[in-house]
Design a protein that fits this description.
The chain is mainly α. The chain is about 70% helix and about 0% strand. The chain folds into two domains: about 30 residues; about 30 residues. The protein contains three helices and no strands. Keywords: Membrane, Transmembrane, Transmembrane helix.
Length: about 60
């Protein structure tokens, strides 16, 4: 492929991505928002999940 063809393909893909984003309501100028995932990394949450898994495994083993 020539450089011109590669550039034309790249620009076409960018236009398609932009059109798809617009169709789904994504705006290029909208600031990206990232929600914190504190719940998933909280030590208490990990401890509770570990205890629940151990309890479920014990009940399954004994049943």
């Amino acid at each position: 492929m020539s450089n011109a063809a590669i550039e034309a393909r790249r620009l076409t893909l960018i236009r398609f991505e932009h059109a798809a984003g617009t169709a789904f309501g994504c705006d290029d100028d909208a600031p990206a928002t990232v929600r914190p995932t504190r719940f998933l990394v909280n030590a208490v949450t990990v401890a509770l999940a570990t205890a629940a898994t151990a309890l479920a495994a014990t009940i399954t083993y004994l049943a």
